[in-house]
Amino acid sequence: MARLYMVRHGRAAAGFGESHDPGLDDLGRSQAQAVAQELAPRGPLPILSSPLRRTRETAAPLAKLWNVEPVIEEAVAEIPSPTDNLQERVAWLREFMAGSWRNATPPLAQWREDAIAALLALIEDTVIFSHYIAINVAVGLATSDDRVVVFSPDNCSVTVLENEGDTLRLTEKGREAPLTKVN
After folding, report:
1. Residue 164 domain boundaries
2. CA atoms of 22 and 109, how far apart (whole Å)
3. Per-residue model confidence as pLDDT tens digits over 70-85
4. What is the CATH number of the domain that holds 85?
5. Terminal C-alpha separation, the chain
6. Residue 130 pairs with which residues in a beta bridge?
7. Which residues pair with 31 in a beta bridge?
């Protein structure tokens, strides 16, 4: 049984409606250093990262500590937006986050299934640097909750799940933020 440590990226320099692929701001870089120190005693383990800059930058301090090259995994990337217009993306995401997966369009339902399949394919303990909605997908599966947003993982919080082969089991929910800005 593989233990999966899902880490939400550090605070980004820009929000979902401000940039398509921002890096981390100063606080985000500090958060990345802190989560690396928190996870360091558990490894070295394989590291997966979303291809987006903020997740790769969050993974970098831990990868350096462990001397491990992160594997880029598209399946744990940010939820794909149906538009490239930044302002339209924000409105779409707010509405989508209030719903459930049963109302998702076929492409979004497939994105969710791809994320689940990638997580269930992991057979060894792994650290995964990912995003708010992708972490919610994993927790939703583990808790049989169909809502898009099951909880609000804070930047650089660590959610721990166990891969039981055909499903995930939540062992530790990551630290939550009372007001999370999706970034």
Report:
1. 6-172
2. 25
3. 999 999 999 999 988 8
4. 3.40.50.1240
5. 32
6. 8
7. none
